[in-house]
Amino acid sequence: MEQRRDNMKTVLAESLRELMLKHLFEKITIKQISDASGVIRVTFYNYFDDKYDCLNYIAEQDLAAPFREDGLRVGTDQAVERVLRTVQENRAFYQAAYRVTGQNSFEEMVTQNLTKVFEEYLSIHRKRGFMEQYPDALLAMYYAHSFSFHIRRFAFIKNGEETVESMNQTIHDLTRTPISGFIE
Questions:
Q1: Do residues 57 and 112 lie in contact, with contact meaning Cβ atoms separated by under 8 Å?
Q2: Does the CA dihedral 56-118-64-6 come out positive or negative?
Q3: CA end-to-end distance (rounded Å), the chain
Q4: Are 104 and 52 in contact (CB under 8 A)?
Q5: CA–CA separation, 111 and 20 (whole Å)
Q6: Which pick of 5, 81, 87, 136 has the fewest CB atoms within 10 Å?
Q7: Which residues have C-beta within 8 Å of that of residue 125, sequence separation ≥ 6?
Q8: Using the 8-state DSSP alphabet, how is residue 22 labeled?
């Protein structure tokens, strides 16, 4: 039953993703998403509160879930690469998604989802006794904002200007080097 529920959520989310390639998010209706999914409108509300909740599901699945699947077990480098590949493969969608601004901005959705997963990661893997004055929640927010910035930047880079590998290296270098490392 749970797999069927996840499948329907994915179908609805994929319909929203496809619609966003053709229409402004603000103009997309629940009926359009439902029709594109081949279900009645009421079915949509069995899975999502509104289209923002559906968009948030995409952000969680594409950008946070890889850290749960890979990162919580083996480290973050593989998860970062998976996220960047997803953004690269769906660049037009991400450009449209990042244009959703205001109270329910896509960027905030991304940051909130990453904050949750980074907090989970820290709760499992954080070194004990190391800079304990900084709580996991603060560190998770800090790194989520940083990674969210890089995802957005990568979404708007033209194909070929920067590769997944070079962006992954940039993220790796910048998150591991304090600002003082750049100052003489």
A1: no
A2: negative
A3: 60
A4: yes
A5: 20
A6: 5
A7: 72
A8: T
What span, in angstroms and rounded, lies between the C-alpha atoms of 57 and 95? Answer: 17
Residue 64 and residue 114 in contact, taking contact as beta carbons nearer than 8 Å: yes
**SS3 category, 28:** coil
The 10 Å Cβ neighbour count of residue 157 is 15
Residue 71 has pLDDT above 60, yes or no: no
User: Which residue is associated with the tokens 């079915």?
Assistant: 43
User: Higher confidence at residue 148 or residue 176?
Assistant: 148
pLDDT given for residue 126 in this prediction: 87
Detail the DSSP E strand segments found in the chain: none
Q: Which amino acid is at 127?
A: K
At residue 54's C-alpha, the angle toward residues 42 and 43, to 5°, is 15
Question: Is 76 a residue whose pLDDT tops 90?
Answer: no
CA 71 – CA 121 distance, rounded (Å): 7
- In which element (H, E) is residue 89 found? helix 77-89
Considering the domain delimited by 1-48, tell me its CATH architecture.
Answer: Orthogonal Bundle (1.10)
Task: Give yes or no for a contact between 37 and 11, defined as CB atoms under 8 angstroms apart.
Answer: yes
pTM for this prediction: 0.90
